[in-house]
Design a protein that fits this description.
Elements (H helix, E strand, L loop, with lengths): L8 E2 L3 H4 L2 H25 L5 H21 L1 E4 L3 E6 L3 E6 L3 E7 L6 E6 L4 E8 L6 H15 L11 H4 L2
Antiparallel strand pairs: 1-2, 2-3, 3-4, 5-6, 6-7
């Protein structure tokens, strides 16, 4: 077995994907309502107070779907890559990670990377909701980090990340 098998891309899991039909149905339903209200506004000059509500629902459905599709955590030989909808793509070299830990309860646990400069960065889709064997996956991720960070890696003196917590 090569090390390459340990490099993974974490995307929306089954729990999130089960929501796609709900988002599609809600988006279509409220989208049709929004179109009907826009028609009334254009044709009769009579706007509905529900128009903003429908617009907000349609926008949140689009945002939720786009976010689930775009957000990802990608592990490579050189770095861990964190992709978010509005945050862009951030690459953190393995040697620049101070710790990989979990936060939250057992049902809602989330993996977090602690950057050497003290930033705590949640890893998209590396959580107990998207991954059935979450604790095992975090263990594998920590093992990958320990192998890839380099032989001369040492935690920062005094733990820079620990002081920023």
């Amino acid at each position: 077995m090569t090390n390459e098998s340990h490099f993974r891309t974490y995307r929306a899991g089954p729990a999130t994907r089960r929501m796609y039909p709900v988002w599609l149905s809600g988006g279509l339903l409220f989208g049709m309502g929004l179109l009907a209200q826009l028609f009334l506004l254009v044709e009769h000059g009579d706007g509905s107070p529900w128009m903003l509500f429908n617009l907000a629902v349609v926008a949140s459905v689009i945002f939720g779907y786009a976010s689930a599709k775009r957000n990802a955590t990608v592990t490579t030989p050189d770095h861990i890559e964190i992709r978010t909808l509005f945050g862009g793509t951030e690459q953190i070299a393995w040697k620049d990670i101070e710790e990989i830990e979990t936060k939250g309860s057992t049902k809602t646990a989330q993996a977090v990377v602690i950057h050497i400069i003290g930033r705590h960065i949640s890893l998209p889709h590396v959580n107990s909701r998207d991954i059935a064997s979450f604790s095992e996956e975090v263990h594998l991720l920590r093992g990958l980090w320990e192998r890839r960070r380099g032989p001369d890696w040492a935690p920062p003196p005094g733990g820079e990340g620990a002081s920023a917590r």
